[in-house]
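Session log. Operator J.P. requested a structure for one protein chain; no other inputs attached. Running the standard single-chain path with token output.
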Amino acid sequence: MSEIQLQNLFIALLLPVLTLIGLGIAVGSDPYLRSSLKRTILLIEAIVLSLIIDNNICIAITETWKPEYVTLNTLLDVYSYAMRPVVIVLFIYTVWDDPRRRFFWIPVGINAAVYMTAIVKPWTFFINPDGLFYRGPLGYTAHWVSGFLLFSMLILMLKLRAREGGKAAIIPLTNVIIAALGPVLDAQFHQNGFITFTELTTVYCCVFYYIWLHQQYVREHEQALKDGQRVQLMLSQIKPHFLHNALTVIVGLCDIDANRAKQATLKFARYLRGNMDSIEATEPIPFEKELEHTRLYLDIEKLRFGEALDVHYDITCTDFSVPALTVEPLAENAVRHGVRENPGGRGTVTIATREFSDHFEVTVTDDGPGFDPARLSEDKNNHVGIANVRERVVRVCHGTLTFDTASGRGTTARILIPKEEEKDKC
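Structure written below.
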């Protein structure tokens, strides 16, 4: 290779190779990406780099061609055709975390097997002793397989766009288009340079996919922090009024009924344990667990109010999940703003569940004086807990929280959990 050719090689490969190196450093040190994703992206980079090296060895062989190079050049081309679809499947692995993705390896394996026949048969391609390349009847197998994989990836990205909105899928959708343009440009311009359009577009697809994945995981991390802060805010709301009252009741029981005081202390401890567990709960929990936590709260309140507080349970189904600390704040709201505001401080709280064809329903009802629903949006300081419950039900389970209330006729808080969301574990 002449000095000018070496300079051209250096210039052509400098930017993409440096890009791959920089990306590898960024991926390896990224604190947000899962280890499995890091390995996948680094493997894509390694394969792309190997394809660039493969292409340049072929160029060097062609410039100093000898008939004995036929086998070596054939093996290099087999590797190139076999590995290109692998890169697309690995990209699919970065955006689709589903066990069914493993079936994409079937066409990849078939493609590799077809091109390996070039070693003994000219079905895909062959190279004559003069170094000329001829495509056989199966010579476009890699193109068809790659096209199928890119089309599958496009469908996945369109589903992502429909599920999460247009902005979430802009980068991966753009990458599918860029990846498809590479082979088209190579075929159109018969690229014979030190780096092909396919290799060049794949390098930048790696960069864009990493940026997109990083943004996704940063958003999830920030949302998890925000959720934790909201749950802690809810717990801080409970402590001033409920914890003091519960301890006061337990102290009073110690003087008149030691056994009831002991049982109350155990329930109070379990209640606190449930609150602490809720801080760490990032996924929906079984409704039975949330119901048990609500029972503990109401049992402790009943120790305080005695016969003035009547609690009914009408539970007909429990086989679904809800975000942690959703039903208990509604029960607390029913006691504070329902029972306590009744004349004489007496009243009833009823918790019920129903199953319908397309959703589950949880209701918390009190027979208190009711209120103007507009207060929930206007009086934000007194209803932060309810606002948090509504937001988490909507965001985590795509459900709804509504209130059926009016002055003088009580209040019913109603949570609806769609069954399709329940099948996906919210």
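Operator note: The domain at 3-220 is CATH 1.20.1070 (Rhopdopsin 7-helix transmembrane proteins).
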